[in-house]
């Protein structure tokens, strides 16, 4: 992988978009991510309306992420063996059908909470293959030269969707009901399939598929454990995924119980996080170097600031804190994801990224239930504090362990005036 020794000039912050296939992929990705965020907001609020329970929202999050926890590693094996482009066309087509079914149920007024749970679990099954395939396919689109920039831009697109989606989704819920958000997501999935079909296949940097063989799953796990940059990055991600990344559960509680601002306020809270994250992602496109210490420090700092958000005395102060939390969120993800990808061999990258996504989404599956119960038992403020303090403590412990393993020292020089 080529490594830049200094900061890139601002004019090169979008250099991966010089690749035609990546331009059209990114354009469709903006639409898709906005629609996905709309569906997430509408889905969570629909469950809250039907049941009146924050814990039920946590169960919904858990069901959507549980398949990745159960089958995520096998998804990586499939991705390493098959065409990533064809897998994405299949998964997006299936997601379109599932979203369309949920739209019909919601718009006809026949939806029940178990309908949402079943479809959420089915979408989770689609994610088992879709997420690692999408991660690895970016490398096939842009090649190694632009990979780091493309990964950072993907994060920016995700956050742009997180900015637009909740705002539009909250407006739709208030104006005409959440069913139209599901219909829009179905259309967006179809657009993604069409975009993938229209790509120039000859310009792709295709990875030879891994041959079938025994022990491929264990091989991938051994590879991750043997590489400190991958192992510690994924362990930091695990703590954040279980505790810190369950913001929909926490923000739903703040919107309905603390500030009583309804669906529009819930969408606004999510949008504020996304605004900060978008700014953070764009700022990180010029990052010169990515080190393991950057991942651990930024993860701990992000978690600590989220804990502080729970102590804000007013709604305005809470909103400002969410902006900062979103910004620091991207300091972690635009360091951790590229470091894991660029530290892994292409032959096993599908399995490595499936483990990364498994920890990311599977951790949220477990954390959705845990944080939902904690919020109902102790209140949103306590839930926010716990969501940040536990990963911050874990980051401090990891930093000490890594320093001791590698005999690192912190020099302190005292000077007299």
UniProtKB/TrEMBL annotation:
Major facilitator superfamily (MFS) profile domain boundaries: 13-406
GO molecular function: transmembrane transporter activity
Keywords: Cell membrane, Membrane, Transmembrane, Transmembrane helix, Transport
Name this protein carries in UniProt: MFS transporter
Annotated membrane topology: Multi-pass membrane protein
Gene3D superfamilies associated with the record: MFS general substrate transporter like domains
A single cellular component GO annotation: plasma membrane
Segments passing through the bilayer: 21-42, 54-74, 86-107, 113-129, 150-173, 179-199, 220-243, 263-283, 295-312, 318-340, 352-375, 381-403
SUPFAM superfamilies noted in UniProt: MFS general substrate transporter
Organism phylogeny: Bacteria, Bacillati, Actinomycetota, Actinomycetes, Micrococcales
Cellular compartment(s): Cell membrane
Alphabetized Pfam families for the sequence: MFS_3 (PF05977)
């Amino acid at each position: 992988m080529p490594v830049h020794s200094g900061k890139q000039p601002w004019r090169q912050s979008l250099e991966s978009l010089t690749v035609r296939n990546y331009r059209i992929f990114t354009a469709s990705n903006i639409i898709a991510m906005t629609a996905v965020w709309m569906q997430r907001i509408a889905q969570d609020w629909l469950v809250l309306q039907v049941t009146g329970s924050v814990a039920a929202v946590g169960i919904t999050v858990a069901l959507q992420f549980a398949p990745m926890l159960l089958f995520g590693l096998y998804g990586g094996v499939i991705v390493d063996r098959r065409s990533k482009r064809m897998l994405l066309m299949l998964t997006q087509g299936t997601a379109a059908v599932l979203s369309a079914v949920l739209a019909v149920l919601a718009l006809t007024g026949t939806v029940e909470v178990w309908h949402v749970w079943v479809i959420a679990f089915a979408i989770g099954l689609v994610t088992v293959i879709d997420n690692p395939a999408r991660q690895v396919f970016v490398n096939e689109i842009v090649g190694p030269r632009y990979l780091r920039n493309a990964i950072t831009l993907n994060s920016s697109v995700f956050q742009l969707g997180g900015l637009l989606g909740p705002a539009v989704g909250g407006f739709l819920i208030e104006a005409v009901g959440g069913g139209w958000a599901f219909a829009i997501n179905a259309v967006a999935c179809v657009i993604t399939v069409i975009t993938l079909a229209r790509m120039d296949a000859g310009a792709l940097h295709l990875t030879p598929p891994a041959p079938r063989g025994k022990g491929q799953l264990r091989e991938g796990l051994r590879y991750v454990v043997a590489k400190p940059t991958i192992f510690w990055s994924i362990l930091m991600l695990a703590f954040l995924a279980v505790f810190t990344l369950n913001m929909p559960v926490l923000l739903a509680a703040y919107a309905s119980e603390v500030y009583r601002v309804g669906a529009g306020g819930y969408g606004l809270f999510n949008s504020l996080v996304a605004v900060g994250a978008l700014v953070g992602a764009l700022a990180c496109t010029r990052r010169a170097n990515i080190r393991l210490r950057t991942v651990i420090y930024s993860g701990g700092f992000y978690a600590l600031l989220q804990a502080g958000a729970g102590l804000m005395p007013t709604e305005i102060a809470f909103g400002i804190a969410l902006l900062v939390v979103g910004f620091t969120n991207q300091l972690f993800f635009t360091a951790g994801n590229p470091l894991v990808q660029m530290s892994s061999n292409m032959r096993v990258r599908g399995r490595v990224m499936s483990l990364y996504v498994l920890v990311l989404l599977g951790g949220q599956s477990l954390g959705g239930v845990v944080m939902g119960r904690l919020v109902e038992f102790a209140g949103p403020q306590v839930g926010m504090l716990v969501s940040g303090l536990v990963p911050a403590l874990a980051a401090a412990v990891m930093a000490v362990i890594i320093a001791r393993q590698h005999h690192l020292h912190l020099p302190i020089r005292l000077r007299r005036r």
